[in-house]
Write a structure and sequence with these properties.
By secondary structure, this protein is α/β, with parallel strands linked by helices. It has helices spanning 2-35, 41-52, 54-62, 68-103, 109-133, 172-185, 202-206, 209-213, 234-246, 283-287, 306-312, 331-337, and strands spanning 136-147, 155-160, 189-193, 222-225, 249-251, 255-259, 263-267, 296-299, 316-319, 343-347, 350-354, 372-381. Strands 1-12-2-3-4-5 form a 6-stranded mixed β-sheet. It has a 6-stranded mixed β-sheet with strand order 6-7-8-9-11-10, with helices on one face. Strand 2 (155-160), helix 6 and strand 3 (189-193) form a beta-alpha-beta unit. The longest helix has 36 residues, at 68-103. The relative contact order is 0.14.
């Protein structure tokens, strides 16, 4: 029964996806006929179909093969996903513009408008690629109402990177940039609030990314929680936990720990654990034995439950997941779905920070957001 539902869903998805591709392709073929009269339909439709289905084909092949051509196919398809998204927004406007220009007496308005679409699309993809592959550091200075330990530092320096999505697209070079920049910050600890990998652990292992993580230099360690793209339970979950341990990352799986007597760190399983038959603990249960005399920092991948965290006595909650929409105007949706989809909120003694993420999902494109990591200076009372 379950396999039948999955097959039905896949069939409907492929049908709708194919209809969208046909609509976009029809516009492209019409423009090409205007640009190159006499050109054959096959000269357009064959390469168009290869690009349009590259990600789907690459994803299927990646189940059995982990090779450069397959990764290249997925990368090309990922770029097309972003191009498709913006073409679906641009083409209705282009159709209306061509119609109006035709009424005004312009000859071949589709040709001129088509060039406008091409220029706009190339510009968007180039700008979005820069935003995705050139992460920046954002600084937050937060004061918590907890005393600094005797003889300890007056502030804790915390480096945060959510949503790395390490895998077939994001690899060693991008991760190495984070390790280098984080070490320059000289953090007391590094926190990774979920989605360390992009569903599949194999590229992480094959690329030796654990070696890069072990390059992080901290006084108090590196800690992480699961995100919705990280494996849960079973063999996949066990392999993931083992790989993270080899990378020097302490996974917090619904637990609260003391970190050097300087802060309490709480890590929750991602909400999506329910899809795999699991259940996460209530925050109140995790906080029952927590030391609240020191700063309490909570990592929860999805930025929901701020009121619950505030009531439980959390000083700082760190999340990611939203990517700030990644492709504008998607941020208008994430803004409504989450307590906070990006940035910093303060409610009395409670602080919440949501990162747009160091990596990205799908297309290596960001419009209206930027890949980032976070530098937090957590000031304590003297």
């Amino acid at each position: 029964m379950r396999k039948g539902r999955i097959a039905g869903f896949v069939a409907i998805f492929l049908l709708l996806y194919s209809l969208l591709q046909w609509g976009i392709g029809w516009h492209g073929a019409h423009w090409l006929r205007q640009l190159l009269p006499g050109s054959s339909a096959a000269a357009f439709w064959i390469p168009f179909a290869a690009v349009a289905y590259a990600y789907v084909i690459g994803r299927l092949l990646s189940i059995r093969f982990d090779a450069a051509p397959v990764r290249g196919l997925m990368l090309a398809g990922a770029y097309w996903m972003a191009a498709m998204f913006y073409l679906l927004l641009l083409l209705p406007v282009a159709d209306a513009a061509a119609w109006l220009l035709g009424l005004a007496g312009m000859k071949s308005p589709a040709l001129a408008v088509g060039w406008g679409v091409v220029v706009a699309l190339v510009g968007l993809l180039a700008y979005g690629s820069w935003n995705a592959w050139r992460p920046i550091a954002r600084d937050y200075r937060i004061r918590v109402r907890k005393p600094a330990p005797a003889g300890g530092p007056p502030a804790l320096r915390i480096a945060v990177a959510s949503d790395l999505h390490l895998g077939a697209t994001i690899g060693r070079r991008h991760l190495r940039r984070f390790v280098r920049d984080a070490n320059a910050f000289e953090p007391d600890l590094v926190l990774l609030p979920g989605d360390l990998i992009d569903d599949d652990l194999a590229p992480f292992v094959k690329a030796g990314l654990a070696e890069e993580f072990r390059g992080l230099k901290t006084r108090l360690g590196v800690y992480a929680v699961t995100g919705n793209h990280d494996p849960f339970g079973g063999r996949a979950g066990a392999a993931f936990a083992e790989a993270m341990a080899a990378a020097g990352i302490r996974m917090l799986m619904d637990e609260s720990i003391d970190v050097g007597g300087e802060l309490t760190l709480v890590g929750r399983l991602d909400r999506s654990v329910g899809r795999f038959g699991g259940k996460r603990l209530e925050l109140a249960a995790l906080m029952a034995s927590a030391n609240r005399d020191v700063p309490v920092v909570l990592m929860d991948h999805q930025p929901l439950g701020f009121a619950e965290a505030e009531a439980a006595g959390v000083d700082l909650m760190l999340s990611g997941h939203t990517h700030r929409g990644q492709l504008a105007p998607s941020h208008l949706l994430t803004r409504r779905l989450f307590d906070l989809d990006w940035g910093h909120v303060s409610r009395g003694a409670f602080h919440g920070i949501v990162s747009s993420g160091f990596g990205f999902w799908g297309p290596p494109i960001r419009i209206g957001s930027r890949s980032e990591w976070i530098r937090i200076t957590l000031e304590l009372e003297r």
